[in-house]
DNA sequence: GACTGTGAAGCCATTCACAGCT
DNA sequence: AGCTGTGAATGGCTTCACAGTC
């Protein structure tokens, strides 16, 4: 088993390259160099080549990469050569936005169930989906073979929701609640924090004004 | 000027510590150790101490940190000892969710203007805010002294919106569109990508099933 | 001439381990 | 005894620079 560990930063960028390649492909570009990809996504050309090298040799020296091929490879590597059914908990504004987010569909993700424990929200429609009570989750997971869950509930409720997801067999969780989830080893969790980056900005702006600690 | 460069990862975690301290403070906790913070946010105790050490000595040996004090320090460092007016472009579902997101308000951010170029959206109300046409942005920025903008528009429109923001004096941009923005040096930009983390999950799930490249 | 693939070097961040306080 | 603060060691990611290929 030759599986040399791939840095998470590399996987992150691969996802970004892949999306950029999709754009190039739509625009009819057939060949691209590491330098052009680098330019397009804001990294160094060496970085692009090094990242791709973790997975094989996809280019032609002196020429570059075939856009369609590299796009297919990157999607394959990321596991996007299949549709991924997702379940989402939290039918608030954020949950609604995520349900209708184009960026998920275009990459092969499909939300197959939206859940909430708020009676005022249950039964509402989000696109073609109806908001269901939490108890329906096991059934939906089984029916669609979902492995990934999205948490879009207030922070206090997030841990409980995560536990429920794991109990019902989900193996990976994308968490939009600003809390650290405590879950068994083997469950993949990633957090998307909507405000942390904002605080990086205020931190940096602070230095522009007064260069003092 | 003793300003040794602070790693961005440290600033990111500082933001997370700060929010965790807020939670502790609400719960009436008065003292906390680096180990407890570490446990609460999912990093190592040494990391917590090292991160804090970039900014000073906030603890007491043998005891730990005073929660209220450390909370105040972290907020100060992050520039959160003041209110930050924000302008947001894109009154779609994501823009709507961001406008109503509690996590911004609770940290001193306040969206003071929402803009869109879609006539169907202009005039609509989001909470107490009315969606305004883009042309109103300069006025709103001036009136509130906004320095930061949020982009929540489709990817094709993001660059144009960013240019417009910069033209009107904004110094920092939080970009939710999945594209790399090209902006003059000196403008702070951070991207929040809603789907990249999801692709990290599918990548990792791919290895659990078949341990093959 | 152009561009990829890659070992080596450089750099940065995290962890270790312990001295220093309380 | 308990916990912070920190230099030193480690580990990992990024950049460099060039050989290899078209």
Describe the structure.
- 2 copies of one chain form a homodimer.
- With 213 residues, chain A is α/β, with parallel strands linked by helices.
- Chain A folds into 2 domains: 8-77, Arc Repressor Mutant, subunit A; 84-196, Rossmann fold (3-Layer(aba) Sandwich), CATH 3.40.50.
- The first copy, chain A, has 9 helices and 10 strands.
- Chain A has helices at 8-26, 34-41, 45-53, 67-77, 93-99, 102-105, 137-144, 155-167, 196-209, and strands at residues 31-32, 59-60, 64-66, 84-89, 109-116, 125-126, 129-133, 148-151, 172-175, 188-191.
- The longest helix of chain A is centred in the N-terminal third of the chain and has 19 residues, at 8-26.
- The radius of gyration of chain A is 20 Å and the shape is globular.
- At the A-B interface, helix 1, helix 5, helix 6, strand 9 and strand 10 of A face helix 1, helix 5, helix 6, strand 9 and strand 10 of B.
Q: Structurally, how many domains make up the residues of chain A?
A: 2
Low-confidence stretches of chain A: none
The count of β-strands of chain A is 10
Shape of chain A: globular
CATH level-four homologous superfamily name of the largest domain in chain A = NAD(P)-binding Rossmann-like Domain
Q: What percent of residues of chain A adopt helix (DSSP H or I)?
A: 40-55%
Could you tell me the CATH topology label of the largest domain in chain A: Rossmann fold
Biggest sheet strand order of chain A reads 6-7-5-4-8-9-10
**End-to-end distance of chain A, in Å?**
50 Å
- Give the radius of gyration of chain A: 20 Å
- In N-to-C order, the SSE pattern of chain A is HEHHEEHEHHEEEHEHEEH
